[in-house]
Automatic annotation (TrEMBL):
InterPro entries found in the cross-reference section: UROD/MetE-like_sf, Uroporphyrinogen_deCO2ase_HemE, Uroporphyrinogen_deCOase
Cellular localisation: Cytoplasm
Main location: cytoplasm
Purpose: Catalyzes the decarboxylation of four acetate groups of uroporphyrinogen-III to yield coproporphyrinogen-III.
Organism for this UniProt entry: Paenibacillus zeirhizosphaerae
PROSITE patterns membership: UROD_1
Protein name according to UniProt: Uroporphyrinogen decarboxylase
Reaction(s) the record says it catalyses: uroporphyrinogen III + 4 H(+) = coproporphyrinogen III + 4 CO2
Length: 348
């Protein structure tokens, strides 16, 4: 097998043989083999065993035929190095022991020490760099999304404590954004130094903000992150998460290569809102995967038809895979997008 770099080329807007495909949350509970591993070990226990974490990362690459791997980890892992105790609780998600709510709480957060506290993650990346025949995407949670867990203490619908802090104590908020921004920059830089070939910044929940508030309270930190990492030669992806269509026009000056779109904005409309300044990634509604295969293909075809109109397109979902998804359908979908896009690209 030769190394498949279609994903990297698409991120940089270069020519590809076929539209590259990967899925957010492609390592996960829809796979019976993964569920078996989870009977023995928790998510955090898997992450602490580099050989096992590397194996779990590679499983979907082998099974689905995708064009990129995404590191098996969680956006919460680096906050352990800041001195935050948390667990990933079954059927809930991240739960924080002592939520961050005051200036004192923010002051107590330590700077990240990747080599000392997160060496297992660097080791996993090194193993994957040796073994993979597709690029490895590493990732970090973006400051707003991480802050929402740190402040609420657990997954939340309305983000009441997060917004209370943001609107009522902006100085404390900006100090938290600064510290989380520093964390992300140091962490992602270490990923690339250890063999990461691209990275995605997950801002899964920032679509909860009005565009003008995103611009004031969050965007400056996002811009700083991409600016400070702009010397790295790897593709950089920003995923502004669900319901983020209204934020897209604000991203035009970001030093990122790719923007991830959710399913509420079409690929063509997403490109327009981004002023054609980026490659785009997305954006099948993950729940379409519950439909019969012909419906899935019809929806994927409509997305790919828009995607291949211009260079710089990566097929993905609009958000992460869910446990009820089917391995067989995902494999067939990947194959379909590869075949169909290759025909379209040859005709171009
Ligand atoms: O994509 C991948 O396959 C790589 C692994 C990955 C995980 N989390 C493992 C995981 C990635 C990229 C993440 C990122 C992550 N974690 C995000 C951003 C992506 C997104 O979906 O918006 C967020 C918001 C988190 C926080 C988090 N972790 C939540 C809300 C949950 C619970 C939700 C659920 O589906 O149960 C987790 C747990 C988690 N992280 C799981 C996995 C595979 C599911 C539980 C498990 O298998 O133990």
């Amino acid at each position: 097998m030769t190394y498949n770099d279609n994903f990297i080329r698409a991120c940089f807007g270069e020519d590809v043989d076929h539209t590259p495909v990967w899925y957010m949350r492609q390592a996960g509970r829809y796979d019976p083999e993964y569920r078996k591993i989870k009977e023995k070990y928790s998510l955090l226990e898997i992450c602490r065993q580099p050989e096992l974490a590397a194996e779990v990362t590679m499983m979907p690459v082998r099974k689905l035929g995708v064009d990129a791997a995404i590191l098996y980890s969680d956006i919460m892992n680096p906050v352990a190095s800041l001195g935050v105790n948390f667990d990933i609780v079954k059927n809930i998600g991240p739960v924080i022991e002592n939520p961050i709510r005051t200036a004192n709480d923010v002051d107590r957060l330590k700077p990240i020490d990747v080599e000392k506290d997160l060496s297992h993650i660097l080791e996993t990346i090194q193993i994957l760099d040796r073994e993979l025949e597709v690029p490895l995407i590493t990732f970090a949670g973006a400051p707003f999304t991480i802050a929402s867990y740190l402040i609420e203490g657990r997954p939340s619908k309305g983000y009441i404590h997060t917004k209370t802090l943001m609107y009522s104590e902006p100085q404390v908020w900006f100090r938290l954004m600064e510290k989380l921004g520093d964390m992300v920059i140091t962490y992602l830089r270490a990923h690339v130094a250890n063999g990461g070939k691209a990275f995605q910044l997950f801002d899964s929940w920032v679509g909860a903000l009005a565009p003008k508030d995103f611009e004031i309270y969050v965007l400056p930190t996002i811009k700083r992150i991409f600016h400070e990492l702009s010397d790295l030669k790897v593709p950089k992806i920003y995923f502004p998460g669900v319901s983020s269509g209204e934020l897209l026009p604000l991203l035009h000056k970001l030093e990122a290569d790719v923007i991830g779109l959710d399913w509420r904005v079409s690929i063509a409309e997403g490109r327009r809102r981004l002023n054609d300044g980026f490659a785009v990634q997305g954006n099948l509604d993950p729940y379409v995967l519950t439909a019969p295969m012909d419906v899935i293909k019809q929806q994927a075809k409509a997305i790919v038809d828009e995607g291949v109109q211009a260079p710089g397109y990566i097929f993905n979902l609009g958000h992460g895979l869910f446990p009820e998804a089917s391995l067989d359908k995902l494999r067939e979908l990947t194959h379909y997008v590869h075949e169909y896009s290759a025909t379209m690209i040859r005709q171009r």
